[in-house]
Amino acid sequence: MLIDTHTHLDDARYNDDRDAMIARAREAGVDAFVTIGCDFATSRAAVSLAERYPFVYASIGVHPHEAKHMQDDWYDEFRRLAKNKKVVAYGEIGLDYHYNHSSPKEQRDRFREQIQLARELALPVIIHTREAQEDTIGILKEEKASEVGGVLHCFSGDAWLAKEALDLGFYLSFSGIVTFQNAAMLREIAKHTPLDRLLIETDCPYLTPVPHRGKRNEPAYVAHVARQLASVHFGEADAIERIGQATTANAKRLFKIA
């Protein structure tokens, strides 16, 4: 049993075969999915999909790329969406200084506000951080995000970031990146991440794992992430069942999924 903790099931690339894609994942052993909000529209879409499928759960929030588009009245709408029992997290939120689609100040301001709202709603946070490690950790500490907990999704940072996040009580979620040939350092970090802090994800339709590089990613491929983690933790890919048990228990604990 596997849980793909970070998907974008509403993405238009699935419009022609969404049901079939989800069925393939279920056949591959994926028992549950969390589909992610990145702005107001995708948050509503995530909740709608969660209502449609009993094994799909939703997060709500605004990605740092979209921080400049946020309006203050969105927060009341997020409060309304959060009343839905299928909403299990707030995010993905955070900082991304690689592209700076929104200015760093806009990102930081909205990041703080959204952590505050997550605490108000008692929802764990899903964190996106890229080339902004120190600011991300600093804000998580200052805004007391550890009170609700959360996960650094699609973890691709260094050992310092991993330790800081773990010290905050956060989880680290690994994506298809961990299967890439040039990801030796990331695999070493994954190896030293305690089993009770590991999560797995696809971030589909992005970051397709080996051996499907070049194709559209989908939740069925989360098994390749689990297999890679089994290899680095236990020395054998056949230990995927142990990784599955651990990461599923972790996802249920963090997101309060029954």
Automatic annotation (TrEMBL):
Q: What class of enzyme is it?
A: hydrolase
Q: Which InterPro entries match?
A: DNase_TatD-rel_CS, Metal_Hydrolase, TatD-like, TatD/YcfH-like
Q: Which residues cross the membrane?
A: none
Where on this chain does a divalent metal cation 2 bind? 128, 153
GO cellular component terms? cytosol
- Which Enzyme Commission numbers does its entry carry? 3.1.21.-
Positions bound to a divalent metal cation 1:
6, 8, 92, 203
Cite a single GO MF annotation: hydrolase activity, acting on ester bonds
Keyword list, A-Z: Hydrolase, Metal-binding
Could you say which protein family the record assigns here? Answer: Belongs to the metallo-dependent hydrolases superfamily. TatD-type hydrolase family.
Q: Know the name of this protein?
A: Putative deoxyribonuclease YabD
Name the source organism.
Nitrospira moscoviensis
What lineage does UniProt assign to this protein's organism?
Bacteria, Pseudomonadati, Nitrospirota, Nitrospiria, Nitrospirales
- Name of the coding gene: yabD
